[in-house]
Give the backbone structure.
Amino acid sequence: MARKQIQKADSLPLVAIDLGSDSVRAMAARRLSADFFQILGVEERPQKLGNICVEQGVVTQSSNAGYVIAEVLKLLANRIGVDELPTAFLAIGGYSMQIVAVHSRRDQARRKEVSQTLLDEMERECKEKIEVRNPEVAVLGLVPSYFKLDGVEQDDTPTPEQRAALVEAYYIAFCGRKALDTQLQKAFSQAGRSIEQSFVRPEALLSAFATCDGNQVLTEGCAVLDFGAQTTTLTVYKGGQYLLNKVVPKGGYHITRMLEQQGLSFNTAEVLKKQFGCAAPQFVEKNVRLRVPAVPEIGGDIVITSQELAGAIEIKLQEILAPLLDELKKVESRIKTIYITGGASMLQGLDAYLQEQTPVHVCYGAHNYLLHRDTEEKYLSPLYTSLVGTILLGQDYRDSHKDQLVRKPGFFDRVKESTLDMFIESE
């Protein structure tokens, strides 16, 4: 029975999961050619008020999150016609995430091949360096910055065909509270699934944009403004290094809550924002009067014009973006492009609003070049860029870990986890 739970990773579809604050999404895909994929299916389950399991990118209720993960992957398996999806790649974000530079070196005494095993060991050493010094911190992702072989900087990750006596690896570590990593692992264990590999969300997004626009954007320098439901993140990257990763605990959800406080239900406020909202009054194409129902406690209707709605949204938008724009000003002379993405980024006029705030070119990030031409149009939305970027990184991971076996947690693993939780809670 245990044997049936073990499969070769490359025999499984590529599956990515995005644990968003508004919903949990999963995507299955297969590679058609180098950096070119076909989406096999997508499933998502919105989080319900009163039963929230992910907040600001952090799993807060592992049992609830485990249930949703299992449900979404089961539905996705049914959609694409396979018995089971035991493993998935995961993109990680979160309010507490910070970046730290770290490196490792190996003196092999004589010129030997630079094996994947050696590089994996050096990556683990970098992870352990940070976690040993800071027991309350977990390394959520390690992104290669650059490598040196016998003192010579390399253009790419070394391969086993290359030989060197001295191997040096430089990484950028994305770190967060250890509880974030622990809750993620518990959630997948309780779902009866395993994380094949996790990546930090900024890396997934940048990988997608670099593949579409060419690696020149990374060399010249670029920023990603990831506008989510409960968090908004600014990541700045240039020439192999992350210069900045700043997260504010506010997003599109907070704009909706602001409108809700005017006497609307949350659902009505959300529809009003998505269908008629604009980033600022100057970007409203036609000023119309809108009549929407108030909550039962107030009764009747609320009348608001498009200009008034945009004015209210602009005030909240300024509050959300101000700390990020302050940070951007410090590095804007070093970058050429700002990409906008994320589920809340489709607010009308957002790109024009940001362009007024900075001399750097602003545009929406795209991932369509990674997908087959018959892909449904809705999957080309910024809402799915993180999933597509995670699929891309997942394929790269499998290419460098061929024939690796993946195993979903079995019954005894889950019993052990539950028993530990019982003892911890009783202390």
